[in-house]
């Protein structure tokens, strides 16, 4: 089902996925306003139209943020909304470890902003895409995780995402807000934060002959290159169902050992020796793999293979390392 909108707002536009989302939308010719609470590049709103026209092909390291908006403040987004505007709500903390250490700030950073975005969407009659996470699923649920699999978060971060989803469903059912949920799994690519792939690359820069990973190497994650991820988010808001939930992933679980080996191959030659230290993995979600049939039914197919995505990511990280 196609739904009409010709303008977009991206929250969290200075973040990893947000930067790519803004760039993708602008490359589609869609007038896009990037907002973030801590902008590194701010245009005046008066110059927005020329900014979005000239931003096609904007470098990934130049976050296209047009306005500083603190979503923790109720009503902060309302002045930027008008009918025909879609909201890609990508803002929020994505640090699982920090959520475990300090759950209250994590709640404030993730749940209140989502509620405020939904309220703004209700007032402005705007569709909303909420970026949730595969971490909402029950670690003991059968693989692959389907959208109807049990929800039982293993971390405060996952709990905050589940709460955001619940508010999306409530606003859809109570007020008719066109809210949709995208459960992102492991998104990677140039500009990513300090997660496993980047960590492997940086460690191999310092010691190119060997790479030791923590755990037994059997932990699995479902990876999707960031350019494909933003295409999927766009597809969900263009063609998905109001009130719907969609897994966003490749649909294939990969062991952390195989991921490390792929990074080592991209860094070579010579290819480093990769081994696991054999220590017990402390992650509650030991295995993650998504069923992506619903996303596939929308016509989505990944365009960048995992290996090509790793090669691009490694190339970019090497370039940054050499500066």
TrEMBL record:
Q: Which residues form the NAD-dependent epimerase/dehydratase domain?
A: 9-249
TM region positions:
none
- Source domain of life is Bacteria
Q: Which Pfam families match?
A: Epimerase
Which pathway does the protein contribute to?
Answer: Bacterial outer membrane biogenesis; LPS O-antigen biosynthesis
Family recorded in the similarity comment: Belongs to the NAD(P)-dependent epimerase/dehydratase family.
- Designated name of the protein: dTDP-glucose 4,6-dehydratase/UDP-glucose 4-epimerase
Q: Which organism is it from?
A: Candidatus Kentrum sp. FM
């Amino acid at each position: 089902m196609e739904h009409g909108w010709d303008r977009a707002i991206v929250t969290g536009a200075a973040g990893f996925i947000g930067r790519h989302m803004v760039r993708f939308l602008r490359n589609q010719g869609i007038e896009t306003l990037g907002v973030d609470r801590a902008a590194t590049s701010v245009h005046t709103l008066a110059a927005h139209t020329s900014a979005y026209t000239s931003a096609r092909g904007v470098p990934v390291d130049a976050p296209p943020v047009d306005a500083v908006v603190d979503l923790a403040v109720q009503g902060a987004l309302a002045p930027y909304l008008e009918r025909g505007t879609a909201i890609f709500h990508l803002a929020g903390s994505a640090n699982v470890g920090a959520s475990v250490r300090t759950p209250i700030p994590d709640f404030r950073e993730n749940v209140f902003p989502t509620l405020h975005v939904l309220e703004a969407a209700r007032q402005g009659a705007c569709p909303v895409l909420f970026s949730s996470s595969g971490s909402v699923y029950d670690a003991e649920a059968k693989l692959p995780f389907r959208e109807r699999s049990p929800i039982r978060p293993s971390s405060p971060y996952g709990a905050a995402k589940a709460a955001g989803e619940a508010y999306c469903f409530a606003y859809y059912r109570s007020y008719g807000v066109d809210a949709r949920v995208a459960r992102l799994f492991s998104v990677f690519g140039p500009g990513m934060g300090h997660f496993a792939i980047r960590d492997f690359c940086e460690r191999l820069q310092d010691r190119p002959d060997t790479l030791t990973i923590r755990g037994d190497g059997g932990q699995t994650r479902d990876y999707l290159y960031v350019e494909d991820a933003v295409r999927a988010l766009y597809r969900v808001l263009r063609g998905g169902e109001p009130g719907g939930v969609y897994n966003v992933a490749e649909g294939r679980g990969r062991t952390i050992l195989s991921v490390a080996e792929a990074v080592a191959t991209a860094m070579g030659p010579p290819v480093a020796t990769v081994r696991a230290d054999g220590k017990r993995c402390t992650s509650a979600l030991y295995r993650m793999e998504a069923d992506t049939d619903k996303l596939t039914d929308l016509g989505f197919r990944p365009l960048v293979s995992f290996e090509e995505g790793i090669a691009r990511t490694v190339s970019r990280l090497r370039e940054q390392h050499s500066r």
